[in-house]
């Protein structure tokens, strides 16, 4: 059986701890395994931290909130 590698890209505003990312990655991996029916080692999760100056919501930079 060919296994397609799910690649999940998660962007977060900076400030999350390593432990929070670890827990989120584990939850994403488990959900992907359960729903997409692939082995856990096929699931790849990439975290990208965005600086608060690089994210705007409602016309206001996150750093200005």
Label this structure with key terms.
single chain, 65 residues, alpha+beta, Macrophage Migration Inhibitory Factor, two-stranded parallel sheet, two-stranded antiparallel ribbon, 1 helix, 4-OT-like_dom, 4-oxalocrotonate tautomerase family enzyme, EC 5.3.2.-
Put the structure in a nutshell.
The chain is of the alpha+beta class and 65 residues long. The protein has a single domain, classed as 2-Layer Sandwich (Macrophage Migration Inhibitory Factor), CATH 3.30.429.10. Helices cover 29% and strands 28% of the residues.
Question: Mind describing the biggest β-sheet?
Answer: 2 strands, parallel
Question: Which structural class matches the secondary elements?
Answer: alpha+beta
Strand content: 25-35%
Mean pLDDT: 94
Structure write-up:
- This protein has 65 residues and is of the alpha+beta class.
- It has a single domain, classed as Macrophage Migration Inhibitory Factor.
- The strands form two sheets. It has a two-stranded parallel sheet with strand order 1-2. A two-stranded antiparallel sheet has the order 3-4.
- Strand 1, helix 1 and strand 2 form a beta-alpha-beta unit.
- The protein is elongated.
- The mean pLDDT is 94.
Question: Can you lay out the helices and strands and say which pair or pack?
Answer:
Layout: E1 7-13, H1 18-36, E2 44-50, E3 56-57, E4 60-61
Parallel strand pairs: 1-2
Antiparallel strand pairs: 3-4
